[in-house]
Hints:
Number of strands: 52
Largest sheet: 8 strands, parallel, barrel
Oligomer: single chain
Strand order of the largest sheet: 38-40-43-46-48-47-44-41
Amino acid sequence: MPIAFLLKFKRPPDKRGFAAVVSVLIVLSTILIVVGAISVITFAQQKITRNSALSAQAYYAADSGIEDCLYRVIKGKKYQASNSLTIASSTAAISISDAGGQTIIRVNGEQANRWRNLQVKLEINAEDISFHYGVQIGEGGLTMNNSSSILGNLYSNGPVQGFNNASTSGDIFVASTPAAVDQQWTIYNTGFTFGQQGNQIDAAQSFMPTISDRLTKVSLYLKKHASPGNKTIRILTDNNNKPSKTLVASGAYGTLTTSQISQQNYGWIDVTIDTPPQLTAGTKYWIVVDASADYNNYFFWGADSTDGYSSGTGKYSPNWNASSPNWYSINDDLDFKVYLGDLPNVLSGIHVGGNAHANTITNCVVNHDAYYQTISDSVVNGTSYPGSPDPSAETMPISDNNIADWKAEAEAGGVISSYSLSGSDTASLGPKKINGNLTLSNQSDLTLTGTLYVTGNISLTNSAKLRLGTNYGEMSGVIIADGQISVANSATFYTNDSGAYILLLSTKTGDAISIANSASAVIFYASAGNVNVSNSATLKEVTAYQITLGQSAQVIYESGLASAKFSSGAGASWLVSDWQEIP
């Protein structure tokens, strides 16, 4: 056979070895890819774990910075607005600023270039203290001299007398003064918690009067936790040695204004009865506080663990108004005072723009209706209602507990000696207790940055300026004096908001506050003394035990005074309103 033919039909080469090599290469490549992927994933997981650990350390550094700042701000310790804190190998960069009544704390935590940022907002824990009347007076009464006027309503627990065109644009209420304490128990050695949880929601104390007369006021020895809302006090009849569900008479209740209760200390809180009921000597009655369950906001009632008051005792209930209420013995007496009887007061010599309410009205012109027992030498342009019950005494808007808390708040900021500014002096001050006097004169300018408590006198004269610091925002500020407060010769007051005020308060008896010029951003308050407003001065609001308005003096009430906000005292000054992580 020819060679060419043999070559043409040569057997093809065997490719099985090549295929095996390719298969091996594919397997090896797959293994390498898997191993690489596992390595990448493992490395990524290790990186994530490491970053997570470092990030957590940065977070805890920031959190530590927040906790440190909260302690310093809340406890009134010194702090720097910008500073840093080292925690192990981490750092916390701190920034503290004030804005709109808030303190804002920002902390940047860092660990090995990993960052976590936290922010906390602190607000002043405020109480609403309401001034519902242009002028409110205690038992000392009001004198309105020639052409003095009140644009708003007037409420007085004492007599009101006007001369020569003295007038009000609104209503006048002249209440009868509560006469005297008939029953009381004031031994305090323990406290009873109610209004929080369980069965201890409503609390009650029984008593038996020794005389038959009208119940005009009760006082309870109370403290509170946080900020419970106002509660109703009811005077109920007895049902087999426990409270019934029946009021002694229609209107035998009053409002417990909880803004007057301290979070720090027990104190006596007055509650006037809306329509004073007639009580009978030797009959058992019950004072019942109608509360509600609130784990965060509740009350403590001062008590005597010996249960020593022989004419009554304390009880509690989960719901006094249930269809068949259950009452349980406390085995303590809850501290209380009961006022029986009242002393009628007179309204005289005033042109009343609205309605007039008083036991006796004499020598008045009343544009609208008159409610009275006796009237003489008066003109009533509306309807007369003879035989009307006397208005009940109105509780003053600020209690001794509020004053004590504000004093403690000021003292927590430190104590200094007498303080004065004059001429071009400009300064900021507060919170501080001043042992001595506070004197601002001759165009000096003081910014109030916290509550001030002055043990002596306060004098603001000759165009001196007093301002609320921007840290107050919409809040109102407080300055208290144990001595006399004098405002004269164009002293000027400034606040940050139309609803914010400066409260100037004196605890002095006798002549407590003297006002000789107009002041539009100030509330004047004398808890135990007389406020003397000189000729032609114009004010927003005056409240005092006794008030004298000079010739042409004018009070123009502002509606925002019904919801003025003030800090709630030492130890409760700050509230954390927001806590969040930020970018």
